[in-house]
Amino acid sequence: MEANSPEKIPFFRDPEKLSILYQFLSIVAVGLVSYYLVSNTLANLERQSISTGFGFFEREASFEIGESLIKYSAADSYGRALAVGFLNTLIVSFIGIILTVILGTILGIARLSSNWLVSRLSAIYIEVFQDIPILLQLFFWYAFFYEMLPSPRQALNPFSGLFLCNRGLVFGIPEWHPAFKFMAAALVLGIVIALVLKRWAKARQERTGQIFPILKVSALLIIGLPLVVWLMTGMPTRMNVPTLQGFNFKGGLSISPEFTALLLGLVLYTAAFVAEVVRAGIQSVSKGQTEAALSIGLKPTHVLNLVILPQALRVIIPPLTSQLLNLTKNSSLAVAIGYPDFVSVAGTTINQTGQAIEGVAMIMIVYLVFSLSTSAFMNWYNKRIALVER
């Protein structure tokens, strides 16, 4: 036997082989548990003569939904009703995320302001809204709209075409005109050109050091192009103005108290946590970076946009993603104030059809899709802004 030959390790002491064995046993255990749960559930459903499957999607829903982004009536199918709930959840989550990021960023920066009053007001906001449960905030805003605001006949009318009452916010909108299609195309074109200009301006600045006024030019393109199209198509200005008919308003666009209360509660609550994330991210950048930027003559706004935020975002993005996911999942509390989100519509569907397993499974899948989509976008953005070492 050679002296340098490796000693043979027994199977029960080999870490690599044991890890493979443990993984195999774990998979087998999960499979057996899953098989038991599924088979037991199917047996119980069969014993109680409860049908399974998603065939109920085609049956008539027979219930109304107060708010819908698409046409819907009680004569439509359960599938369309669930689509209405999905879109309602999507719109409140999408708008809520945008407003939360904007408000949270402003509050986080204000929290570090050298102005004592601005800093204290931001701190008070953060402490108050973090310490009040989100459900209580939803109840407060819901009660505010229904108890504190007047009826439609005594609606507040700050200016022509805008009414605020316990039925919600009602305001005039432009009547449809073919020019709006071309204005939308011009808006998209302006955004595309602005994005191309941004990449060119960044490459030019890295090459020559010259700063291009990308914000002003982008704003001019995004606003100016649709405005030019509007001028060229005859400047349509006819409005669909709401008018009081009976006990409610007709015409215009109405935003319900339920939607407004839900959006306000989600945004104001989550923005308090986002503000602390932004504050922590900014403070993670050493003061020497700020002092160095100021010493070479950069303006405070340029220091924030070009020096501090690009470095702070590496710290901000991961916890910010968690807060945005929390906002999306907290939107399921809409059922408490009567907003017809996906959970509310799915709950009504379960009560009428008895398809509890399918209903709960759909709720889980929908929120899983929302969460994974948000995480995927934030991870993509995180990689995009990551500082590349050279």
What does this structure look like?
- This protein is mostly helical and 390 residues long.
- The mean pLDDT is 86.
- The chain has helices at 15-47, 78-111, 116-131, 134-148, 179-208, 214-232, 257-283, 287-295, 300-330, 342-353, 356-385; strands spanning 162-165, 168-171, 173-174, 239-240, 243-245, 248-250, 253-255.
- It is globular, with a radius of gyration of 28 Å.
- It has a domain at 78-141 and 256-385: MetI-like (MetI-like fold, Orthogonal Bundle), CATH 1.10.3720.
- A hairpin with a 2-residue loop joins strand 5 (243-245) and strand 6 (248-250).
- The two termini are 52 Å apart.
- This is AapQ.
Structure in a nutshell:
With 390 residues, this protein is mostly helical.
Strand order of the largest sheet: 1-2-7
* CATH class descriptor name of one domain: Mainly Alpha
Fraction in beta strands: 5-15%
Gross CATH architecture of one domain: Orthogonal Bundle
Shape assignment: globular
- Overall pLDDT, averaged? 86
